Amino acid sequence: MGRPHVLTYVALTLLATAILAGVFFGTAEVSWADRWAALSGAADAPRSLSLIIWEWRLPRVLVVAVVGGSLALAGVMMQTVLHNPLADPYLMGLSSGASAAAVGAILWLPPWVASTLGIPLIAFAGAVCAFAMTLGLSLRRGAIMSPLVVILAGVAVSLMFQSLTAFFLYVGDPHATRSALGWLMGTAAGTAWVDLWLPLFALVAVSGFALLRSQSLDAVLLGDERAMALGIRVRRLRLVVFAAVALLAGLSVATVGIVGFVGLIVPHMARLLVGGRHRALIPLSLVLGALVLVVVDLLCRVILAPEELPLGVLLAIFAAPPFILILRRVRHAY
User: Domain span at residue 138?
Assistant: First the structure.
């Protein structure tokens, strides 16, 4: 068994441990015997604890794990096809578009409209709109899509939607802006089983595609010209990757709000451990992304219990040191 497989299995073991910790620990003070009884579905388990574990904690932990894996996988693919170590899933304006749509819905739409459509669906529509605008600015008939043009288009679209979000917050009702700010900072509170299935299906589908095209992704790292010489249709591959990243990031934002740094930091952590071959990089990145976000979400719940910290805020605090290290590594590359 090679080193990449060993590291992946170790990460899976740590992820399973973190999931159990996320299910067992919380604000409720109960004995370990009652916790195991509730998790195993024993007849003598306290009914209230069974409800907490099976309807609140377990779906929340699993949703967070899927979102973390999705963002990490999206980050791996974006950094590969854009030849940019600082690319992340939100580079194409996805988070900004989702933010503007969600904040606009919370502050301006009638309550019955927001409750009927749901903030997650509205946020996903905003992410898709931003993605379409970025692609529209990047595409040119008969030419390979330039990574630099995509990055610049994504920055422009992000700035536009960020300005729109700031305008909504400035002129909106102060009481409603608190709810909007809570969503912008990221939170998994209130997630249920219904929130799990669509992001999980998307993650499984995109993971399968990425593993099947792992050799093509390896070739893209050599440069567009060399990849084309090896028979890789770079333009088509890049478009498919962008669509897959938009799906993963859009669903993630719609589910838990804006959660940054996972798609940027985790792929670099995985590369330091197993190198740049995508057959090993993709599984490890996916598991590490899930592990990081599950641990951070658990800390958000227990550090200031019974109060809960925003997921994005605590994650940014922990991610800042490795982000600085990555900047030091790449500052001479351009």
Answer: 66-330
Asked, for residue 14, whether it belongs to a domain, the answer is no
Residue 218: CATH number of its domain: 1.10.3470.10
Is residue 308 included in any domain, yes or no?
Answer: yes
Other C-beta atoms closer than 10 Å to the C-beta of 310 total: 20
pTM: 0.87
Residue 179: exposure state from Cβ atoms within 10 A (0-12, 13-18, ≥19): middle
pLDDT tens for each residue of 267-306 = 988 988 888 889 999 999 999 999 999 999 998 888 877 7
* Cβ–Cβ under 8 Å, residues 169 and 181: yes
- AA identity, residue 125: A
182 vs 155, more confident: 155
Give the pLDDT of residue 60.
Answer: 92
Q: Using CA atoms, how far apart are residues 232 and 129, in angstroms rounded to an integer?
A: 29
Q: How much is the mean pLDDT over the chain?
A: 82
Q: Is 289 part of any domain? A: yes
Distance CA(236)–CA(273), nearest Å, equals: 30
